[in-house]
């Protein structure tokens, strides 16, 4: 309720007060709507699915293992590849399987430049799935 100000000298100014009743009414209506509609969302149509005997085809993506040693030498699998031939090797792998994944293993002392050049060659060749292989830390 508004009683006015504590200033008794002169005219009294009315104070503004927020009426909470409409806010409470709106919140109560929303709560009732959510209580009614929530159980309807969990019900699904009961469907009995047919039984079929089949085996899923295991499609394992081709993994391209790329390693970079501390000297910056790049290895695809166990074969050392020169920097100018690297993009060609990646293109050959993409031509064999478009969903090829590159797993990059870099020595901790490898320069960032060697890793960045290898990754940019892979992107130019069309490799989109690149993952970094690390050792888990001991707990």
Automatic annotation (TrEMBL):
It is found in: Cell inner membrane; Cell membrane. GO terms for cellular component: plasma membrane. The keyword Signal does not apply. InterPro entries: ExbD (IPR003400). The chain crosses the membrane at residues 20-41. GO terms for molecular function: transmembrane transporter activity. Keywords: Cell inner membrane, Cell membrane, Membrane, Protein transport, Transmembrane, Transmembrane helix, Transport. The keyword Membrane applies. It is a single-pass type II membrane protein. GO terms for biological process: protein transport. Gene3D superfamilies: 3.30.420.270. Its main location: membrane. Pfam families: ExbD. The accessory proteins ExbB and ExbD seem to form a complex with TonB. Involved in the TonB-dependent energy-dependent transport of various receptor-bound substrates. Belongs to the ExbD/TolR family. This is Outer membrane transport energization protein ExbD (TC 2.C.1.1.1). It comes from Propionivibrio dicarboxylicus.
């Amino acid at each position: 309720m508004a009683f006015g100000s504590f200033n008794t000298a002169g005219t009294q100014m009315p104070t503004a007060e927020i009426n909470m009743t409409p806010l409470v009414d709106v919140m109560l209506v929303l709560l009732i709507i959510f209580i009614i509609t929530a159980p309807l969302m969990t019900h699904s149509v009961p469907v009995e699915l047919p039984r079929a005997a089949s085996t899923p085809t295991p499609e394992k993506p081709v993994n391209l293992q790329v390693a970079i040693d501390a000297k910056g030498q790049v290895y695809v699998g166990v074969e050392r590849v020169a920097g100018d031939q690297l993009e060609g090797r990646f293109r050959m792998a993409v031509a064999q399987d478009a969903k090829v994944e590159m797993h990059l293993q870099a020595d901790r002392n490898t320069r960032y430049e060697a890793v960045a050049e290898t990754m940019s060659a892979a992107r130019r060749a069309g490799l989109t799935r690149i993952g970094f292989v690390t050792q888990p830390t001991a707990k």
